[in-house]
Design goal:
Length: 384
């Protein structure tokens, strides 16, 4: 008698795809996504389809996360070198014949217009994690020098475009991998001390350094202007200092409890520039106040700590380094954006994860979350 095999139901075939998903990571993302949708509904009320588009971008990011989560870390590691090589090649192509908009050459026309620097936000930590995985157990100072060179090439090309915000994010992700790979504190502390000393000297000598006619040879004019504006935005309150001043006014006017949902006057009277993108944190602060800000910071902290926990429990060096770098990428996104809007960092084009409007940034976040889910899933499968 022939054996009869029962065909599994659709439900039984779908459930394994979700097995191993990290519930705490999902919870962190849901909290931030809810905050993002709530804020976008208010700040983008007169932006046509901005709220609907933001929701669509989130669904695309979730789809990407789901697909990437099914790819084991070993497969991801095999894609590191091709993705990094393609990213650097595209950055070189941008430098040679890229599209220039508003004084920046960041885009490339390949039938569709793309921004290759976004690829490096994921490709850079992938590449460095692959490099240190190959050198596991035999790391020498030369290996860290090679890693630093691999990092310097795309960061230099991105800064040349110029795109300070993206270059900072790529640099932060790359340096995180190098540090987590075992870079000595003796090599980390001197640059940090020099940076702190430089900031202190900049603040002390700001009147002379930012005087009319003074030019800093190491920076472009607009970068110098952004730093000088940060130090004293009141010098040009209706020009270069307008963004920072209006952002701080909105944050301060929110008080402890905020003005309430859809009640932000700075937001709805359009005093806040870019209120649905880079400066959306100011709109959020005005309506939800200090308490809302603390809750938002706690949600980001929960996300970063959960990603670091996944990194600590990862089964391979590659997975640990990659997850740790992605955790620091989330931290860098949030810290730079909130610091920029609050007036403690220069204005750069860095969105607030899950809150700001932006399709490309949301795709990058979906990729990063998918990789974290994949690493968490591989650990759970190894333990089962």
């Amino acid at each position: 008698m022939a054996a009869v095999f029962e065909t599994p139901s659709v439900w039984r075939r779908i459930v394994p795809l979700f097995s191993g998903f990290d519930p705490l990571l999902v919870l962190a993302v849901l909290m931030l996504a809810a905050a993002g949708l709530l804020t976008m509904y208010s700040s983008g009320y007169d932006h046509g389809t901005r709220f609907n588009d933001h929701g669509r971008n989130m669904l695309i990011a979730v789809s990407i996360m789901f697909v990437v989560a099914q790819i084991p870390p070993q497969r991801l590691m095999s894609a590191a070198v091709p993705l990094y090589t393609a990213g650097v090649a595209l950055l070189i192509a941008v430098a040679l014949f890229g599209i220039t908009r508003k004084g920046a050459t960041r885009w490339l026309n390949l039938g569709v217009t793309i921004q290759p620097s976004e690829i490096l936000k994921i490709a850079m930590p992938l590449m460095l994690a692959w490099w240190f995985q190959k050198r596991e157990g035999q790391l020498r100072p030369l290996d860290f020098a090679v890693g630093a060179t691999l990092l310097a090439i795309p960061v230099g090309l991105i800064m040349k475009q110029p795109d300070l915000g993206t270059s900072l994010l790529v640099l932060a992700a790359g340096l995180s991998v190098i540090f987590f790979a075992g870079l000595s504190w003796r090599l980390v502390l001197p640059p940090v001390a020099l940076a702190i000393a430089g900031v202190i000297l900049l603040v002390i000598f700001e009147p002379s350094l930012c005087a009319d006619g003074v030019r800093w040879s190491v920076l472009r004019d607009y970068q110098q202007q952004r730093i000088c504006t940060l130090l004293d935005p009141a010098k040009d309150p209706l020009g270069k200092g307008f963004h920072i001043i209006q952002g701080m006014i909105a944050i301060g006017s929110g008080g402890v409890w905020g003005k309430g949902f859809m009640q932000g006057t700075q937001t709805h009277l359009e005093f806040i520039p870019e209120r649905t993108t880079d400066f959306i944190f100011a709109a959020f602060s005005e309506e939800f106040g200090l308490i809302g800000n603390l809750l938002l910071i706690l949600a980001f902290t929960f996300l970063v700590l959960r990603a670091l926990t996944i990194a600590l429990d990862a089964p391979t060096l590659f997975s640990r380094l990659l997850a740790g770098a992605l955790a620091m990428m989330f931290f860098s996104y949030a810290f730079v954006n909130m610091g920029m809007v609050s007036g403690i960092l220069p204005v750069v084009g860095v969105p607030l994860p899950f809150i700001s409007y932006g399709g490309t940034a949301m795709v990058t976040l979906g990729l990063a979350l998918g990789i974290l889910m994949s690493i968490s899933k591989s650990r759970r499968l190894m333990q089962s």
